[in-house]
Structure formats: structure tokens, C-alpha cells
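Key idea: predict the complex, not the pieces.
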Amino acid sequence: MAKFQPHLETCPICGSAGNCHIHDYYGRSIIDFQAGKREKSDLCVMRVFCDSCEHAHAILPDVIIPYSSYSLLFILRLLGQYFAGRFTIEQLCERYQISTKQFYKWLSLWKTHKQEWLGILSDLDTSDVSFLRSIILLDSFSSFAMGFILHFAHSFLQSHRNPIPASLKNAQYHQKVFAPDISIF
Ligand SMILES: [Zn+2]
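Result:
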């Protein structure tokens, strides 16, 4: 986020350039899984304001899935361990302190998004493990994440749809343009 320069961005709502500036910051927490245990961290999220259309936008780094309290890496680690076949679902749910219902929700979201991204034919030819490897080994995970958003108008593994901004019916997805240039792997 240190490299992010709001005044150089194009507004995702009205499309004007150079009209955004830092508006404020808000705090939120995120659940992550590090060094073998579940952890809750506090995050400070920047909001920018566009002077042209008077909309505020939150700048979400890649590790955040919109509307999810769990970090992207939490879910990818969980699924990766499941695909590797070393743990049963019950063991994984206990380790990650989640319900089996939540596990199946993420697994089904993973399957749907994998198929959306790869297309039906490639999806059948690509195992879960190799797809997971291919996205986490990308030089910049950001490019995959942004590519996914641009194609489908929601983030990878995002389960809730994005709200449509109140005053503009045809506004584009907010995260589309505001992609901080960071790499998480
Ligand atoms: Zn604007």
C-alpha cells in the first residue's frame, strides 16, 4: 500500500482521472492462519474520495476477500491441505476452527470459480492441486486476482455479490481499478 498513489488513479465509478484523494481510514479485523494456528489481526483500510462523482471507495489489498472475515490465504491454506489429502475434513475443521458447513461452502465456491476461470474443458483436465499451485506460484498473484475481477465482476472466492452504488445504476465494480501493486506470495 505504500506504493499506492490515489491521485494517479482513475475513478471506477465515473472514469475520471486524477480526482481521487485519501478520504479516511477505517479499522476491521481479519482471520488468518499462520504458523499452524488461527489468528485474528487488525487492519487499517484506506478509503479514497473522488471529487468528480463524490463517491468513496475502499482500497482492499489482495489478501482481503470482499465481505469475508477470513483472509484469502486462510481459505487457500485450508483447501490446499484438503487437496493434499493428508487430513480428513473433520481434522481440518478442528484445526482451522470452522464448521463443516463452512468448509463445504468454500469448497463449492472454489469448484465454481475454478471452472469459471478455466472453462469447462480445461477444468476437467486440471486438478485442484495443480490449479492451486498455478495461482499461488504466479509472479504476482495480483494479476490473477485482478484478471478474475475483470472477467466476473467479483473477487476470487467471494461469496456475496457487490452492492450497486446508490446513485449510479450502471457503475462498474469498485475494485476494478484500485489494484494496489502488491504481491502476497
Ligand atoms: Zn468518480
